[in-house]
Amino acid sequence: MTTLDAEWTIELGARAKDVSKKTSAYAVGCSVADGVVYVAGEVTNGARMVLGTQTLDSMGGTDVWIAQVETADGYVNWLNQVGTSGEDTLARNGPVV
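RE: above sequence
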């Protein structure tokens, strides 16, 4: 890559268990290694991350998610969601390792 033009984009979503609650899912950081990008973020209010037809389980509150994405074409190899019944967050201003 020689420019800052987008090579590909992906879209991950979140689905609330309780439709009366607003939810959001957002990326916090990423790291590139050996032809893949690891992207990590948070999903709020007990929502479940969604990738295509796959819906992950929430442990409650805010959970952390991480995805492995191919640098060549943006294919998502896997997506995981982890947390506790409390508020689980990622550290800000640091790399995903």
